[in-house]
Amino acid sequence: MKPALLEAMRTSRICRMALATCLGSFILVLFYFQSMLHPVMRRNPFGVDICCRKGSRSPLQELYNPIQLELSNTAVLHQMRRDQVSDACRANSAASRKRRVLTPSDLKHLVVDEDHGLIYCYVPKVACTNWKRLMMVLTGRGKYSDPMGIPASEAHVSANLKTLNQYSIPEINQRLKRYMKFLFVREPFERLVSAYRNKFTQKYNTSFHKRYGTKIIRRQRKNATQEALRKGDDVKFEEFVAYLIDPHTQREEPFNEHWQTVYSLCHPCHIRYDLVGKYETLEEDSNYVLQLAGVSSYLKFPTYAKSTRTTDEMTTEFFQNISSEHQTQLYEVYKLDFLMFNYSVPSYLKLE
């Protein structure tokens, strides 16, 4: 059974979905968040403002004002995902909206494509390298044609992509209103294990070992050797978890982006995302974004078998040695990500 179908079966609110809801209105997001409720903008009979090529339909038009009157299963699924995020934000408003106003520095993960009217919030360890490659193709105006021809290191050079924090506040507001905003998410603990494996078990990641590994070992390992304190290259997963739930860590500085929560990176309770893609349906969701952007005839999401990817089975193994107390504390850290994006509490957890 496809992951998308399983997700739909888990979501009980599909019966609320009505054609008039999708076609009658769409959500307008203001950069300065004035209300605890998302303001609503009525459908423009002439369509959403065109951001892109003259005479073409914008991604927002394709999504909210589709030419066909009957909604596709994909459109219904993405409406359900939007509803899930909105419901979680309302139900957990005290935790999810600790700050009522975002500043430009909060928007450094939102990549802007002016030519196609897209804003992509990248989340590390959720196929962000390949999506940055795609955004380079989309914004390169002919400089790139094959996403996989762009080296991963080049995709992560910040100067190669423009982010929303580089604009003035009026320009930010305009783009949040007119462009289609999307992000991709992943089961939170699978993403966390993926980050740990990549940053702490690979010998080439010496910068992470020095900056974070040495600190983690110094705080969490009794009788650590001088070599471990100097190199920081043998952090155990149990030590990593203890570091994450340590109140001192959270007071000291924000989490690194590779293990920061999605709601802290992308602010989905302040910014109304039009599409929430999932790692579990990555290719399907990615190509839907490209279809809405009008580029699917010549651009597809790169597919390749990655034998080293972190799986649910691997994640289960990593959590076997984590105490129930620490599991419970860690779940509280990532709880909003579980709730917003409709991920069940993992069966392997022993919550207190």
UniProtKB/TrEMBL annotation:
InterPro entries: Carb_sulfotrans_8-10 (IPR018011), Sulfotransferase (IPR005331). It is found in: Golgi apparatus membrane. The keyword Membrane applies. Its main location: Golgi. It is a single-pass type II membrane protein. The keyword Transmembrane applies. It is an enzyme of class 2 (transferase). Its EC number is 2.8.2.-. GO terms for cellular component: Golgi membrane. One of its GO terms (molecular function) is sulfotransferase activity. One of its GO terms (biological process) is carbohydrate biosynthetic process. Keywords: Carbohydrate metabolism, Glycoprotein, Golgi apparatus, Membrane, Signal-anchor, Transferase, Transmembrane, Transmembrane helix. PANTHER family: CARBOHYDRATE SULFOTRANSFERASE, CARBOHYDRATE SULFOTRANSFERASE 11. Belongs to the sulfotransferase 2 family. This is Carbohydrate sulfotransferase. It comes from Heterocephalus glaber (Naked mole rat).
